[in-house]
Amino acid sequence: MNRKIITIFIIALFCFIIVLAAARSFFLKPSDRPPKVTAIPECEYDPAVWGKRYPLEYASFQKNLEMSASPTEFGGSVKFQHSLRQPEMLTNFKGNAFSTDYTEDRGHPYALTDLKESKRITEKSPGACMTCKTAQIAGIFKDSGWAYAKKPLSELFTRAHYSIGCANCHNPSTMELRVTNPAFVEAMNRRGVDVTKAGREEMRSYVCGQCHAEYYFEPGSSRVIMPWDKGLHPEQIYAYYSQKPGGFEGDWVQPDSLTMMLKAQHPDFEVHSTGTHARAGISCADCHMPYMREGGRKYSSHRVTSPMKTTGASCRRCHPEDEKMLLERVRNTQKSVWELQHIAGARIARAHEAIAKALAAKTVNKEELEKARESLRRAQWYWDFVAAENSMGFHNPALCLNILGQAIDLAHRSAESAAKAASASR
Questions:
Q1: Helix or strand or coil: residue 216?
Q2: Which of 11, 105, 119, 148 has the highest CB neighbour number within 10 Å of its CB?
Q3: Cβ–Cβ contacts within 10 Å for residue 349, how many?
Q4: pTM, 2 dp
């Protein structure tokens, strides 16, 4: 009797294993197996050529050509002038090319075209402007080193034919992730980080951060430098700039307040790196380039877009809430940041006007005037750190709301100091 029961049990267990194996084969399929690595010639920058070997990745990359509004109403890839929604920018950026042309960014395939069409570009624009606009930057740097940065941008336009693409982030021989922006490699080295030894998950942020970051051009050489020697927090970066590194005092002088200002450049990497998701080990690509399955294959989507367009793959693997709730959560966060950003920008514009009024007085208290300018410079830096960043604060809501609050306070202090400076003539 016992032998019969044991036999039945063995047969049942065997059948269960067969069913389990069949189910695993059906549901998982070969989709988790990466495609066979096929090498691409070192100097091949045309994404269409790469796409012949990696069709799923290329098909998703081509979706970056689509221009659409963000599901949250903030961001998106539709080209429009920011000053139409934030008229205070015309005052705050007065004297800087951003007051003339400041459009919403489009997808990666448009980077080179948008640079050529930008009204901010002049005959004096340096080759450094090309650093994050073409897949050919690795070859350009290999041939010229940092000498390319000082060359006329118009000269590099004749050489660069491809916008941001596969070669910016992938080793063509192995398909492993790589950083091609020398400024990022140098900045991380100064922070004690060897990018070449980074793990894959770190690289899934580094390949994005190599361009989505704050930088400035070194006076004289136009070399691109990322100001992270003191840290990634906006206050630490401001302290770095206050030391006038390499003779860099600022980006321009605002003509009304005659204050030397700083222009923030899309500090997405800095804001994300100090936020909750980064601390939890979540990379940029985890949310903006999530893993997908199609035709029995698993691949990373190369449609770099808002996670709200791919909520199931981007968010719900960690957040069990339904998609509508997640969208509302992000929208509310961004709306709160937007409202405070708008207030901060308007207060800063008034501070510029207050200082201009003080300068028009017969006699001015110079000490109070310098206090007003320093408060204004710091206020605008904090405001612009958020305004220039692409997540409307969602990468790190606590940080963004905090520095916007400080920006408003500093703008008020600036106006008060300007009023005291002007009262000296009474």
A1: strand
A2: 148
A3: 21
A4: 0.90
